[in-house]
Design a protein that fits this description.
Strand order of the largest sheet of chain A: 1-4-5-15-10-11-14
Shape of chain A: globular
CATH class of the domain at 6-13 and 68-111 and 235-442 in chain A: Alpha Beta
Helix content of chain A: 40-55%
Strand content of chain A: 15-25%
CATH topology of the domain at 6-13 and 68-111 and 235-442 in chain A: Rossmann fold
Radius of gyration of chain A: 20 Å
Distance between the termini of chain A: 60 Å
Largest interface: A-B, 44 and 44 residues
Largest sheet of chain A: 7 strands, mixed
Number of helices of chain A: 17
Oligomer: homodimer
Chain lengths: 454, 454
């Protein structure tokens, strides 16, 4: 009998509801605090910044399931449901008894899972009559997603793109412009936050934290404009749960259930999207599954950060969030996985890690590219440098299974492809990339002045 | 009821046989001639250059169906069957009564349909014990496909890449190298053919014709080495028929049958792959369907070329083929659709055009990019500059339907995505691209000394 490689769902199986893990968590995250008053915030307090529906989703602790609007589902059908794939060729190359599956989010027309939330956010903005939106982007995956989503729902978009990525990934800028967005390298002179950091650090290559400050400032000073964000927040993770909900049905088709679920980790969106739907069976039914977030060694908030209140951005415009963080002024090394260069983890993941419902591992840059090239040469798909971190973690689990002589079912999220990141592969193949280490002292310096948790 | 956007086939519906139109053609193409003796060639005469099975397929005029080896089908499953998609959003933007469908070959991990034949060619080479293969590539789509295919079957590959594309599309080079291939810009100093043209034309930016000469020369002078080609030849079109065979089943799922089938046209591989399976119903059952090849105005072999015997390459190493051609020394303008910059059309398509079983249209560069941007903004996928020619032709047909107030079912091949061609879109958006015209005198000068047909 022939082996099935790709497990496909028809469009009729596209989820109709998102899964809201916040409703099921026994220990809810501490509330976000107003940056000025330090008082707990309500969803109304977020209305000036976010579309109302998104702000309400952010704070929703009661509804386990939230309807996906038909208009969003129609657009999701451009690429969803995405395939679940058995990585036979990778298994063979590793000579492992483990079964390795991956959810292939790279088939999205923008090249990553980011479109799942971009379409939802653009829709809710349009629905309340907003005409302009702003956002930031690191590697450019979120920015490209938001560009197409804005075009799809008829919104004008301005994107602040981290300067180092703007230079490393010119094709991303072109993509955003092809979909009609305006792209500004950050830090820029167009905002107070940008001008301040340029003045203080003339050669600053940018960070997601700074780009967020700029995008928020522009949104707050533009009429009929909202801000959108591609990770970290609860509502973003919520929209991403279509990944895990589809994967759950597809794993049923394989006749297996994952022992390990892996996602790379920047702010939490793709990891959460795959993991949360499976985690609900752990929370509610005691199902034994390991959930592993794979972060870069150079930006190790989950493995080496502190758990405190911190800002989501560099300038301190956002609410204070309870998070594992390296400090909002942390400037990560210039690794190519731009989407993972963020100082903090979302509140949901931070709480789940604290409650031992999940684990985290750190991956060196060279190990991530080694894994990425092996994956490209076996499974054909050149992974995004971010996704290569998940692959490296999956390979490590598969090799452990081989060492221990046990079978094991591993599921990871291929959050995106790397076709627009070939400069990074070029440099890796030429031997020009390096690992980056971070001293305990650096982490201490960046985190010792944070707002303490109550 | 919800609209279905993507029509999907399970892996079990992946074709088990290729469709060989040569067996069904009433007028067979004239035989290929030996470049020295001018005598008709047999498949054995091609054995030094091509794997035996491929040479036999090239000459097979009797078998309507040819088995796809299991080893090839296993690798095809990495991305096949590919989706058939209803372009609702494009239809809406055009306000047309036409129904527009496209076969989405861009989901291949190398980004185009080229992998369909690359996997077959690499397999047959491996099967007969070959260790090294050579090829050429224009835009880089075929080269990337052959790079992954060679890695998948354990072959060493050298790719001659047209110099202008090598410079315009650096990411393509990186992709080929990530999959383990050696990439040489053509014309190069590594072959007699390359040295000759460099000497005669010091600033020559290369052409597919020259790159083919170089790849053939390297194959012939390397032990245990075969040459592979991505288009033009019968066996390449044969391998591509998986596209149309799947599309046929998928059109049945829609309840419609195409009135018009469209593919962009360089040497014929993607056009033939989609069109031939539908054309068999025209040949065998008189089904009324229009088949349209969309070629660039700057390289108009089908619409303005002559039908004569000509070489497939610039140096005259290949057999003489009966083809619509602009002359094997024709140096096409530097349009970004590098895959369409080829002087001649394959013998099958040339004969079918002569017999009025199909049509051809020419598309200006600016019209192709305009169509490409509209497609990106509506359907989300940034098309390859080559595929944008097919989109432009489909849009033209859809607008005609609107003008005439008739419904019409249009099917085109989205042969690949343009994520690695963003430089081209950048230049288009900046207003830096232009159309190229070709005078009758230029065509006459290039074609008047060709070998006359018998």
């Amino acid at each position: 009998m022939e082996q099935t490689k790709k497990f496909l769902l028809p469009e009729s199986e596209l989820p109709t509801k998102w899964y809201n893990i916040l409703a099921d968590m026994k220990n809810k995250p501490l509330p976000m605090l107003h940056p000025g008053t330090k008082q707990p915030m309500k969803s109304e307090d977020l209305y000036p910044l976010f579309a109302k529906d998104l702000a309400d989703q952010e704070m929703n602790q009661t509804d386990e399931w939230i309807d996906i609007p038909d208009e969003v589902r129609e657009k999701l059908k451009i690429y969803r449901p995405t395939p679940l794939v058995r990585a036979y060729n990778l298994e063979k190359a590793l000579d492992t008894p483990a079964h390795i599956y991956f959810k292939n989010e790279s088939v999205s027309p923008v090249g990553s899972h980011k479109l799942n939330s971009a379409l939802a956010q653009a829709y809710y903005c349009k629905k309340e009559g907003v005409t302009n939106v702003t956002t930031e982007t690191g590697a450019g995956q979120w920015g490209t997603a938001m560009s197409f989503a804005s075009k799809a729902f008829g919104l004008e978009l301005a994107v602040y793109m981290v300067k180092i990525s703007y230079e490393q990934k010119p094709y991303r800028r072109s993509l955003m412009q092809t979909w009609g967005a305006q792209v500004i390298p950050s830090p820029s002179m167009s905002t107070k936050a940008g001008r301040k950091i340029i003045t203080e650090h003339p050669n600053y290559q940018g960070s997601l934290g700074t780009a967020i400050s700029e995008a928020i400032e522009l949104a707050m000073s533009t009429p009929n404009c909202k801000y959108t964000l591609g990770s970290v927040l609860n509502h973003v993770s919520l929209h991403q749960t279509v990944i895990g909900l589809e994967a759950e049905k597809q794993m049923e088709m394989t006749g297996e259930y994952p022992d390990v679920v892996i996602g790379c980790f920047g702010g939490g969106s793709n990891f959460s999207g795959l993991a949360f739907p499976f985690m609900r069976h752990t929370i509610k039914a005691g199902k034994k599954t390991r959930f592993i977030a794979a972060e870069p060694s150079s930006c190790p908030k989950l493995t080496r950060g502190v758990f405190e209140y911190d800002f989501g951005d560099e300038a301190g415009y956002t609410p204070l969030l309870p998070m594992f963080t390296l400090g909002h002024n942390f400037a990560p090394a210039h690794i190519h996985a731009g989407g993972l260069r963020y100082h903090g983890a979302g509140s949901l993941v931070s709480q789940l890690l604290k409650d031992n419902l999940m684990e985290a591992v750190d991956i060196e840059q060279l190990d991530s590219f080694k894994a990425g090239v092996l994956f490209a040469q076996t499974e054909g798909i050149v992974p995004a440098p971010e996704s290569a971190h998940a692959i490296a973690a999956a390979i490590s689990e598969a090799l452990k299974a081989k060492e221990e002589g046990v079978s094991k079912t591993i599921l990871f999220n291929l959050s995106g492809h790397g076709l627009v990141d070939m400069t990074a592969y070029d440099q890796y193949l030429a031997g020009d990339l390096m690992n980056y280490s971070l001293s305990d002292q650096e982490i201490k310096d960046n985190t010792e002045n944070l707002e303490k948790l109550a």
